[in-house]
Amino acid sequence: AFLQRSNLLAELHAFCQAHSYDVLVAMTIFFNTQNEPVRQLAVFCPHVALRTTICEVLEHSQSPPLKLTPTSSIHPNLHAYLQGNTHVSRKKLLPLLQEALSAYFDSMKIPSGQPETVDVSREQVDKELDRASNSLISGLSQDEEDPPLPPTPMNSLVDECPLDQGLPKLSAEAVFEKCSQISLSQSTTASLSKK
Fold it and tell me: Where in the numbering of this chain does the DHHA2 domain appear (predicted)?
């Protein structure tokens, strides 16, 4: 349904321009009629070399294996995949994207001893790599050993969720006790604010 949107490319292009992104990777998840999870990936990038590098890294990843199957897309700047390994969440995908960006920017670096071209200097490539890496891990600790990844929502399939066992059982006593606690805290707050 996402790929069938009438003005999809224009919307993706506008989004990337508004946020100064060179590439956009989208991950979806839904449940089929058998209540099994289905994940999909889409890579939008108007730059052929960058899109190719990212797609190759994702397609050939073995740690973790994504088990990607290309899906048909009529848009040349958009590659879409069915992700066979549904346990790979965005947390596990992020290092693969960082690897893809490093590979892309490493391929752009000029070997030492070679004259630099006017189009791309070594300094520009290094700055772009730093900017891309920083935008991927912005807000994260710069711990050298193992930087923490952004938190995964509790509805993720890869983490234990308290709702896996169903909704919590509620009794009239539990509801009454909670209401009493709320009333007590509100009356305490109100009496303190009067003083």
Answer: 1-101
Angle between the 90-108 and 48-60 helix axes, to the nearest 10 degrees? 130
CA 17 to chain centre: 18
How far is the C-alpha of 57 from the C-alpha of 103, rounded, in Å?
9
DSSP tag of 119: S
- List the beta bridge partners of residue 31: 37
**Predicted confidence (pLDDT) per residue in 14-39, tens digit:** 999 999 999 999 998 888 899 889 99
Q: How far apart are CA 166 and CA 135, in angstroms?
A: 37
Task: Please list, in sequence order, all residues whose beta carbon lies within 8 angstroms of the beta carbon of residue 102, skipping any fewer than 6 positions away.
Answer: 129, 133
Q: What mean pLDDT do residues 35-49 have?
A: 91
Q: List the one residue out of 100, 187, 95, 184 whose CA is nearest residue 147.
A: 95
